[in-house]
Amino acid sequence: MALVKKPVTGMKDILPSEMQIRDYVIRVIKETYGKFGFNTIETPCVENIGNLSSKNGGENEKLIFKILKRGEKLNLETAREELDLVDGGLRYDLTVPLVRFFSNNGNNLPSPFKALQIGPVWRADRPQRGRYRQFYQCDIDILGEPSNLAEIELILATTTTLGKLGFKGFQIRINERRILKAMAAYSGFPEESYDLVFIILDKMDKIGLDGVADELIKEGFEKESVDKYLSLFKGMEAAESRLEYVADKIKDFLDEDIKNNLKEIIDSVSATKSSDFEIIFDPTLVRGMSYYTGTIFEIAIPEFGGSCGGGGRYDKMVGQFTGKDTPACGFSIGFERIVLLLMENGFKVPDENKKIAYLIEKGVSGDSLCRIVAKAQEARKDGTQVLVARMNKNKKFQKENLTNEGYTEFVEFYKN
């Protein structure tokens, strides 16, 4: 079989110029989240296939890279179904591993526990702009905090980070799963069909209000229910407060505390934010993960035209492992898409240290070479980044490449 030099479809090699930006973004993320009290953890890339297939991952469970059993455990002759062959899989997100981690180590963790996790995940998805089959996720989660202080802290930490990376004028879209359900109940949709209604609603930004109406009718829902449902969205367009308008309309199906809780999050974030963004109530926001139980939110950056991160509350997930529910809420920043936008905008990593390249002509050796290396070592003690390299035949091209890597000074050494 011939060797292939290109990466597997949906995965990519990362060149030094991009790696510098990725490393910088990770440094900013860790520094900023650390100031909010989040602690870095790490979980294995491989999870038990039962954990990954527990109906918590929505459509992502169809995209798992599954791992065959090894050695004597792999018996092709007696295998009758997939589970006879597979016992593990590459994680498709960081939330399922975090919940398993917390369930296993909770007795040794503070409460509430504020976790930061950065690492690669894998999905057998169709690659497109900003979407790969192997990609990095960056999650912050708070476990053990039942109040909306968790949501407020998560949103402020994430938006502060985006601001430090130079992003302005973006939006945090926020909704509540219980408001979604109350809107569906008010409209007369049968409870067993809520998920289908929400899947169609989630297409609103692509097919518009009329498109949503058409798809709901095609699925066999009563026109009266569809019209009543869409009237909620049409009516809020002229409302001074969309949240107050919707909450008033569906008040017979919604606990007022839920509305007040969401309003407090929006008001608190708006009053204390340190970055240039807007937080808005968006009743069309659905989020695909089935484990969400309350507040949900997403990052919308105009330059990308889609979601650049999201999260929400998942109070029932830990209980699936431990038998005891634990309040939990998390926010995942779209690491790959953030890096993509920075690169497309020509972002340059701020030079924290001076970068000098020592270019040595071929033939320089012995004591002369030793003196040059010693000089570089002395400069490094002062924090200067010094590259020592042989001079290429095409010195101009070599310097251009080094300039792109951030080197601002060149010292050339020739043989006597």
Structural class label: alpha/beta
Question: How many separate domains?
Answer: 3
> Using only CA atoms, what is the Rg?
26 Å
**Range of strand content:** 15-25%
Q: What's the total count of β strands?
A: 14
Main sheet overview: 8 strands, mixed
Averaged pLDDT, please?
A: 91
Number of distinct helices? 14
Q: Which series of helices and strands comes N to C?
A: HEEHEEHEEHEHHHHHHEEEHEHEHEHE
Low-confidence stretches: none
Distance between the termini: 51 Å
Q: What share of residues is helical?
A: 25-40%
Relevant CATH superfamily of the largest domain: Bira Bifunctional Protein, Domain 2
CATH topology of the largest domain: BirA Bifunctional Protein, domain 2
Give an overview in words.
The chain is of the alpha/beta class. It has three domains: 12-167 and 302-350, Bira Bifunctional Protein, Domain 2 (BirA Bifunctional Protein, domain 2), CATH 3.30.930; 170-277; 355-413, no CATH class. The protein is 40% helix and 20% strand. The chain has helices at 16-35, 49-52, 95-105, 149-164, 177-187, 194-201, 204-218, 223-236, 242-249, 256-272, 317-322, 335-344, 366-381, 395-404, and strands at residues 39-40, 46-48, 66-68, 86-90, 113-122, 134-143, 170-176, 277-281, 295-301, 306-313, 328-333, 355-360, 385-390, 409-413. The strands form three sheets. It has an eight-stranded mixed sheet, with helices on both faces. Strand 9 and strand 10 form a beta hairpin. It is globular, with a radius of gyration of 26 Å. It starts with 15 loop residues before the first helix and ends with a strand.
